Structure prediction request, 378 residues.
Amino acid sequence: MCDTCGCSNSEEVKIHNLQHKHEPQHDHVHPHEHTHEHGNAPFAHSHGHTSGKIINLNVDILSGNNQTAQLNRRFFEGRKVLCLNLVSSPGSGKTTILEKTIHSLIATHKIAVIEGDQQTLLDAERIEKSGAPAIQINTGTGCHLDAQMIDTAIQKIEIEPNSILFIENVGNLVCPAMFDLGETKRVVVISVTEGEDKPLKYPYMFQTSHLCLINKTDLLPYVDFKTEKAIEYAQSLNPKLEFILVSAKTGEGMNEWYNWLFQQQ
Amino acid sequence: MHEFSLASEVIDLAQNEAIKNAVTSIQEINIEVGDLSGVDADAFETALELLVKNTILENAVISIIRTPGIGKCNECDIEFEMVQRLDSCPDCHCFPSQIVGGEEFRVLSLLAE
Prediction:
Protein backbone atom coordinates (compact mmCIF):
# COMPACT_ATOMS: atom_id res chain seq x y z
CA MET A 1 0.00 0.00 0.00
CA CYS A 2 1.15 3.52 -0.75
CA ASP A 3 2.63 5.32 2.23
CA THR A 4 1.83 8.73 0.86
CA CYS A 5 -1.90 8.57 0.33
CA GLY A 6 -2.84 4.96 0.92
CA CYS A 7 -3.65 3.97 -2.66
CA SER A 8 -3.84 0.27 -3.26
CA ASN A 9 -5.46 -2.24 -5.53
CA SER A 10 -9.11 -2.75 -6.36
CA GLU A 11 -9.75 -5.65 -4.00
CA GLU A 12 -10.80 -3.22 -1.32
CA VAL A 13 -13.41 -1.47 -3.46
CA LYS A 14 -16.96 -1.96 -2.23
CA ILE A 15 -20.13 -0.85 -3.96
CA HIS A 16 -23.22 -0.36 -1.81
CA ASN A 17 -26.63 0.03 -3.35
CA LEU A 18 -28.93 1.85 -0.97
CA GLN A 19 -31.93 0.89 -3.12
CA HIS A 20 -32.84 -2.42 -1.55
CA LYS A 21 -36.43 -2.23 -2.65
CA HIS A 22 -36.13 -3.32 -6.25
CA GLU A 23 -33.65 -4.73 -8.66
CA PRO A 24 -32.58 -2.36 -11.40
CA GLN A 25 -33.51 -3.18 -14.94
CA HIS A 26 -30.34 -3.20 -16.81
CA ASP A 27 -30.42 -4.15 -20.41
CA HIS A 28 -27.00 -3.50 -21.76
CA VAL A 29 -24.13 -5.85 -22.02
CA HIS A 30 -20.62 -5.02 -21.01
CA PRO A 31 -18.09 -7.14 -22.77
CA HIS A 32 -15.15 -7.27 -20.50
CA GLU A 33 -12.45 -8.70 -22.57
CA HIS A 34 -10.35 -5.60 -22.83
CA THR A 35 -8.62 -6.13 -26.06
CA HIS A 36 -5.58 -3.96 -26.37
CA GLU A 37 -4.99 -2.71 -29.84
CA HIS A 38 -1.37 -2.43 -30.52
CA GLY A 39 -0.60 0.16 -33.09
CA ASN A 40 2.91 -1.02 -33.68
CA ALA A 41 4.37 -4.44 -34.32
CA PRO A 42 2.51 -6.56 -31.83
CA PHE A 43 4.73 -9.53 -31.86
CA ALA A 44 8.22 -10.62 -31.30
CA HIS A 45 11.36 -10.35 -33.27
CA SER A 46 14.59 -11.96 -32.28
CA HIS A 47 17.68 -10.11 -31.28
CA GLY A 48 21.01 -11.79 -31.71
CA HIS A 49 22.32 -10.75 -28.33
CA THR A 50 19.65 -12.33 -26.18
CA SER A 51 18.07 -15.69 -25.68
CA GLY A 52 14.66 -14.18 -24.93
CA LYS A 53 12.23 -12.59 -27.31
CA ILE A 54 11.21 -8.99 -27.39
CA ILE A 55 7.49 -8.32 -27.38
CA ASN A 56 6.92 -4.83 -28.73
CA LEU A 57 3.77 -3.26 -27.34
CA ASN A 58 3.74 0.55 -27.35
CA VAL A 59 0.49 0.37 -25.45
CA ASP A 60 -0.95 3.16 -23.33
CA ILE A 61 -1.12 1.99 -19.73
CA LEU A 62 -4.49 3.67 -19.29
CA SER A 63 -5.93 2.00 -22.40
CA GLY A 64 -7.89 -0.54 -20.31
CA ASN A 65 -9.56 2.24 -18.34
CA ASN A 66 -10.15 4.29 -21.47
CA GLN A 67 -11.84 1.42 -23.29
CA THR A 68 -14.20 0.78 -20.39
CA ALA A 69 -14.86 4.53 -20.20
CA GLN A 70 -15.84 4.47 -23.88
CA LEU A 71 -18.31 1.64 -23.19
CA ASN A 72 -19.80 3.65 -20.33
CA ARG A 73 -20.02 6.72 -22.57
CA ARG A 74 -21.84 4.74 -25.25
CA PHE A 75 -24.28 3.46 -22.64
CA PHE A 76 -25.01 7.04 -21.49
CA GLU A 77 -25.34 8.34 -25.04
CA GLY A 78 -27.66 5.49 -26.00
CA ARG A 79 -30.00 6.40 -23.16
CA LYS A 80 -29.56 10.15 -23.56
CA VAL A 81 -28.22 10.32 -20.04
CA LEU A 82 -26.29 13.42 -19.05
CA CYS A 83 -23.44 12.07 -16.92
CA LEU A 84 -21.42 14.59 -14.94
CA ASN A 85 -18.22 13.79 -13.08
CA LEU A 86 -17.89 16.17 -10.11
CA VAL A 87 -14.32 16.58 -8.91
CA SER A 88 -12.83 18.79 -6.21
CA SER A 89 -10.75 18.92 -3.04
CA PRO A 90 -12.42 17.47 0.05
CA GLY A 91 -14.82 19.95 1.64
CA SER A 92 -15.58 22.16 -1.36
CA GLY A 93 -19.29 21.43 -1.02
CA LYS A 94 -19.98 18.89 -3.76
CA THR A 95 -22.48 16.91 -1.71
CA THR A 96 -24.33 20.03 -0.55
CA ILE A 97 -24.52 21.28 -4.16
CA LEU A 98 -25.99 17.91 -5.15
CA GLU A 99 -28.50 17.91 -2.28
CA LYS A 100 -29.75 21.37 -3.25
CA THR A 101 -29.82 20.48 -6.94
CA ILE A 102 -31.82 17.32 -6.33
CA HIS A 103 -34.20 19.13 -4.00
CA SER A 104 -34.88 21.78 -6.69
CA LEU A 105 -35.07 19.51 -9.75
CA ILE A 106 -36.32 16.11 -8.63
CA ALA A 107 -39.98 17.02 -9.27
CA THR A 108 -39.29 17.65 -12.94
CA HIS A 109 -36.15 15.63 -13.72
CA LYS A 110 -34.93 12.08 -13.31
CA ILE A 111 -31.72 12.10 -11.32
CA ALA A 112 -29.40 9.39 -9.97
CA VAL A 113 -26.13 9.71 -8.10
CA ILE A 114 -22.97 7.61 -7.79
CA GLU A 115 -21.04 8.59 -4.69
CA GLY A 116 -17.31 7.94 -4.35
CA ASP A 117 -15.57 8.03 -0.98
CA GLN A 118 -12.84 6.01 0.64
CA GLN A 119 -15.12 4.97 3.50
CA THR A 120 -18.71 5.26 4.85
CA LEU A 121 -22.18 5.42 3.32
CA LEU A 122 -22.77 8.92 4.69
CA ASP A 123 -22.88 10.80 1.40
CA ALA A 124 -25.15 8.29 -0.33
CA GLU A 125 -27.50 8.47 2.66
CA ARG A 126 -27.57 12.27 2.42
CA ILE A 127 -28.39 12.05 -1.29
CA GLU A 128 -31.15 9.49 -0.77
CA LYS A 129 -32.73 11.78 1.81
CA SER A 130 -32.93 14.52 -0.84
CA GLY A 131 -34.99 12.18 -2.97
CA ALA A 132 -32.70 10.67 -5.63
CA PRO A 133 -31.48 7.07 -5.83
CA ALA A 134 -27.83 6.79 -4.87
CA ILE A 135 -25.16 4.15 -4.94
CA GLN A 136 -22.01 4.39 -2.87
CA ILE A 137 -18.62 3.24 -4.07
CA ASN A 138 -16.11 2.90 -1.26
CA THR A 139 -12.68 2.84 -2.77
CA GLY A 140 -11.09 1.52 0.43
CA THR A 141 -7.70 3.15 0.38
CA GLY A 142 -7.97 4.16 -3.29
CA CYS A 143 -7.86 7.86 -4.14
CA HIS A 144 -10.06 8.04 -7.25
CA LEU A 145 -12.88 6.36 -9.14
CA ASP A 146 -12.09 4.52 -12.35
CA ALA A 147 -14.18 3.48 -15.34
CA GLN A 148 -14.53 -0.12 -14.17
CA MET A 149 -16.07 0.99 -10.86
CA ILE A 150 -18.62 3.09 -12.77
CA ASP A 151 -19.39 0.15 -15.06
CA THR A 152 -20.11 -2.02 -12.02
CA ALA A 153 -22.14 0.71 -10.32
CA ILE A 154 -24.40 1.37 -13.33
CA GLN A 155 -25.31 -2.31 -13.39
CA LYS A 156 -26.55 -2.02 -9.82
CA ILE A 157 -28.57 1.19 -10.01
CA GLU A 158 -31.40 2.04 -12.35
CA ILE A 159 -30.33 4.71 -14.81
CA GLU A 160 -33.47 5.95 -16.55
CA PRO A 161 -33.40 7.30 -20.11
CA ASN A 162 -33.11 11.10 -20.36
CA SER A 163 -31.92 11.34 -16.77
CA ILE A 164 -29.05 13.18 -15.16
CA LEU A 165 -26.42 11.00 -13.50
CA PHE A 166 -24.07 12.77 -11.12
CA ILE A 167 -20.85 11.03 -10.17
CA GLU A 168 -19.33 12.57 -7.07
CA ASN A 169 -15.67 11.60 -7.29
CA VAL A 170 -13.38 11.10 -4.31
CA GLY A 171 -12.32 14.48 -2.92
CA ASN A 172 -8.90 14.87 -4.51
CA LEU A 173 -7.70 17.28 -7.20
CA VAL A 174 -4.82 15.10 -8.36
CA CYS A 175 -5.59 11.47 -9.13
CA PRO A 176 -9.15 11.64 -10.56
CA ALA A 177 -7.87 13.90 -13.36
CA MET A 178 -6.22 10.96 -15.14
CA PHE A 179 -9.19 8.62 -15.14
CA ASP A 180 -11.88 9.04 -17.76
CA LEU A 181 -15.10 7.55 -16.40
CA GLY A 182 -17.09 7.94 -19.61
CA GLU A 183 -18.78 11.10 -18.36
CA THR A 184 -20.46 13.59 -20.70
CA LYS A 185 -18.84 16.55 -18.96
CA ARG A 186 -16.44 17.08 -16.07
CA VAL A 187 -17.28 19.70 -13.45
CA VAL A 188 -14.58 20.95 -11.08
CA VAL A 189 -15.76 22.58 -7.86
CA ILE A 190 -13.65 25.00 -5.82
CA SER A 191 -14.79 27.02 -2.85
CA VAL A 192 -13.84 30.55 -1.85
CA THR A 193 -12.31 29.23 1.36
CA GLU A 194 -9.53 27.76 -0.78
CA GLY A 195 -6.73 29.77 -2.42
CA GLU A 196 -7.43 31.44 -5.77
CA ASP A 197 -4.17 29.90 -7.01
CA LYS A 198 -5.63 26.38 -6.86
CA PRO A 199 -5.94 26.12 -10.68
CA LEU A 200 -2.21 26.77 -11.02
CA LYS A 201 -1.36 24.20 -8.37
CA TYR A 202 -3.55 21.48 -9.90
CA PRO A 203 -3.45 22.26 -13.62
CA TYR A 204 -4.44 18.79 -14.89
CA MET A 205 -7.84 18.93 -13.25
CA PHE A 206 -8.66 22.38 -14.60
CA GLN A 207 -7.36 21.49 -18.07
CA THR A 208 -9.64 18.47 -18.30
CA SER A 209 -12.83 20.08 -16.95
CA HIS A 210 -15.66 21.78 -18.83
CA LEU A 211 -17.26 23.80 -16.04
CA CYS A 212 -15.88 25.28 -12.83
CA LEU A 213 -18.34 25.91 -10.02
CA ILE A 214 -17.00 28.42 -7.51
CA ASN A 215 -18.94 27.58 -4.34
CA LYS A 216 -19.57 29.23 -0.95
CA THR A 217 -19.83 32.74 -2.41
CA ASP A 218 -21.80 33.73 0.71
CA LEU A 219 -18.42 33.66 2.51
CA LEU A 220 -16.71 36.09 0.11
CA PRO A 221 -16.98 39.06 2.53
CA TYR A 222 -15.02 37.12 5.14
CA VAL A 223 -12.16 35.64 3.10
CA ASP A 224 -9.38 36.98 0.88
CA PHE A 225 -10.33 34.86 -2.16
CA LYS A 226 -9.93 36.88 -5.36
CA THR A 227 -12.53 35.51 -7.76
CA GLU A 228 -11.21 37.30 -10.86
CA LYS A 229 -7.72 35.94 -10.22
CA ALA A 230 -9.00 32.37 -9.82
CA ILE A 231 -10.90 32.67 -13.12
CA GLU A 232 -7.89 34.26 -14.85
CA TYR A 233 -5.58 31.47 -13.68
CA ALA A 234 -7.99 28.71 -14.67
CA GLN A 235 -8.70 30.27 -18.08
CA SER A 236 -4.99 30.60 -18.80
CA LEU A 237 -4.83 26.81 -18.51
CA ASN A 238 -8.10 26.09 -20.25
CA PRO A 239 -9.60 28.96 -22.29
CA LYS A 240 -12.83 26.99 -22.90
CA LEU A 241 -13.58 26.46 -19.19
CA GLU A 242 -16.91 27.97 -18.11
CA PHE A 243 -17.53 29.41 -14.64
CA ILE A 244 -20.58 29.74 -12.42
CA LEU A 245 -20.46 31.33 -8.97
CA VAL A 246 -22.79 29.62 -6.53
CA SER A 247 -23.66 29.37 -2.90
CA ALA A 248 -25.31 26.05 -2.23
CA LYS A 249 -26.16 27.39 1.22
CA THR A 250 -28.07 30.54 0.16
CA GLY A 251 -29.08 29.40 -3.34
CA GLU A 252 -27.25 32.26 -5.05
CA GLY A 253 -26.25 31.29 -8.60
CA MET A 254 -27.97 27.92 -8.42
CA ASN A 255 -30.46 28.80 -11.16
CA GLU A 256 -27.59 29.57 -13.48
CA TRP A 257 -26.15 26.10 -12.68
CA TYR A 258 -29.53 24.46 -13.40
CA ASN A 259 -29.75 26.31 -16.72
CA TRP A 260 -26.28 25.07 -17.60
CA LEU A 261 -27.46 21.53 -16.85
CA PHE A 262 -30.53 21.91 -19.08
CA GLN A 263 -28.35 23.23 -21.91
CA GLN A 264 -26.23 20.07 -21.79
CA GLN A 265 -29.21 17.71 -22.03
CA MET B 1 -0.87 9.37 -5.91
CA HIS B 2 -2.58 7.10 -8.39
CA GLU B 3 0.71 5.35 -9.12
CA PHE B 4 -0.29 2.14 -7.34
CA SER B 5 -3.38 1.68 -9.51
CA LEU B 6 -1.29 2.38 -12.57
CA ALA B 7 1.35 -0.14 -11.48
CA SER B 8 -1.44 -2.74 -11.11
CA GLU B 9 -2.54 -1.96 -14.68
CA VAL B 10 0.99 -2.64 -15.91
CA ILE B 11 1.13 -6.00 -14.13
CA ASP B 12 -2.25 -7.02 -15.63
CA LEU B 13 -1.06 -5.95 -19.04
CA ALA B 14 2.17 -7.96 -18.70
CA GLN B 15 0.27 -11.05 -17.47
CA ASN B 16 -2.09 -10.86 -20.46
CA GLU B 17 0.76 -10.46 -22.91
CA ALA B 18 2.61 -13.40 -21.36
CA ILE B 19 -0.43 -15.62 -21.86
CA LYS B 20 -0.99 -14.34 -25.37
CA ASN B 21 2.65 -14.98 -26.32
CA ALA B 22 2.93 -18.26 -24.39
CA VAL B 23 5.88 -17.16 -22.28
CA THR B 24 6.43 -18.16 -18.69
CA SER B 25 8.63 -15.38 -17.41
CA ILE B 26 9.58 -11.85 -18.27
CA GLN B 27 13.15 -10.70 -17.90
CA GLU B 28 12.69 -7.05 -18.59
CA ILE B 29 9.93 -4.48 -19.01
CA ASN B 30 10.46 -1.12 -20.69
CA ILE B 31 8.08 1.65 -19.72
CA GLU B 32 8.00 5.21 -21.00
CA VAL B 33 6.92 7.91 -18.55
CA GLY B 34 6.68 11.44 -19.92
CA ASP B 35 7.53 14.29 -17.56
CA LEU B 36 4.13 15.88 -18.29
CA SER B 37 2.13 12.64 -18.10
CA GLY B 38 0.78 13.33 -14.63
CA VAL B 39 2.61 10.29 -13.31
CA ASP B 40 5.38 10.62 -10.75
CA ALA B 41 8.00 8.32 -12.29
CA ASP B 42 9.79 7.61 -9.01
CA ALA B 43 6.59 6.84 -7.10
CA PHE B 44 5.40 4.68 -9.99
CA GLU B 45 8.66 2.70 -10.04
CA THR B 46 8.49 2.17 -6.28
CA ALA B 47 4.88 1.02 -6.56
CA LEU B 48 5.71 -1.39 -9.36
CA GLU B 49 8.69 -2.83 -7.48
CA LEU B 50 6.47 -3.51 -4.48
CA LEU B 51 3.56 -4.98 -6.40
CA VAL B 52 5.45 -7.36 -8.71
CA LYS B 53 5.93 -9.97 -5.99
CA ASN B 54 4.35 -13.29 -7.01
CA THR B 55 3.54 -11.99 -10.47
CA ILE B 56 5.00 -12.60 -13.92
CA LEU B 57 7.16 -9.52 -13.41
CA GLU B 58 8.67 -10.67 -10.12
CA ASN B 59 12.16 -11.17 -11.54
CA ALA B 60 11.97 -8.65 -14.34
CA VAL B 61 14.30 -5.68 -14.63
CA ILE B 62 12.09 -2.61 -14.59
CA SER B 63 13.40 -0.02 -16.98
CA ILE B 64 11.73 3.40 -16.85
CA ILE B 65 12.50 5.67 -19.76
CA ARG B 66 11.64 9.27 -19.02
CA THR B 67 10.85 11.63 -21.86
CA PRO B 68 11.06 15.40 -21.40
CA GLY B 69 8.11 17.73 -21.84
CA ILE B 70 8.14 19.57 -25.17
CA GLY B 71 6.07 22.68 -25.74
CA LYS B 72 5.30 24.36 -29.05
CA CYS B 73 4.57 28.08 -29.07
CA ASN B 74 1.25 29.00 -30.65
CA GLU B 75 2.64 32.32 -31.86
CA CYS B 76 6.22 31.78 -33.06
CA ASP B 77 5.96 28.01 -33.59
CA ILE B 78 9.25 27.18 -31.87
CA GLU B 79 9.57 24.03 -29.78
CA PHE B 80 11.10 24.22 -26.33
CA GLU B 81 11.62 22.05 -23.28
CA MET B 82 8.61 22.37 -21.02
CA VAL B 83 9.33 21.57 -17.39
CA GLN B 84 5.82 22.45 -16.26
CA ARG B 85 2.55 22.69 -18.15
CA LEU B 86 2.41 26.37 -17.35
CA ASP B 87 5.74 27.24 -18.99
CA SER B 88 5.51 30.09 -21.48
CA CYS B 89 7.49 30.39 -24.69
CA PRO B 90 11.11 31.31 -23.85
CA ASP B 91 11.26 33.46 -26.98
CA CYS B 92 8.07 35.55 -27.09
CA HIS B 93 6.75 34.62 -23.58
CA CYS B 94 3.39 33.75 -25.10
CA PHE B 95 1.14 31.51 -22.98
CA PRO B 96 -0.27 28.87 -23.00
CA SER B 97 1.70 26.70 -25.43
CA GLN B 98 0.73 23.39 -26.96
CA ILE B 99 2.18 20.26 -25.42
CA VAL B 100 3.75 18.15 -28.17
CA GLY B 101 5.81 15.74 -26.08
CA GLY B 102 6.14 14.36 -22.57
CA GLU B 103 2.57 13.14 -22.05
CA GLU B 104 3.43 9.53 -22.90
CA PHE B 105 2.72 6.81 -20.39
CA ARG B 106 3.04 3.41 -22.01
CA VAL B 107 4.61 0.00 -21.93
CA LEU B 108 7.08 -0.05 -24.81
CA SER B 109 8.20 -3.67 -24.76
CA LEU B 110 8.77 -6.82 -22.78
CA LEU B 111 11.75 -9.13 -22.95
CA ALA B 112 10.45 -12.63 -22.39
CA GLU B 113 11.93 -16.09 -22.06
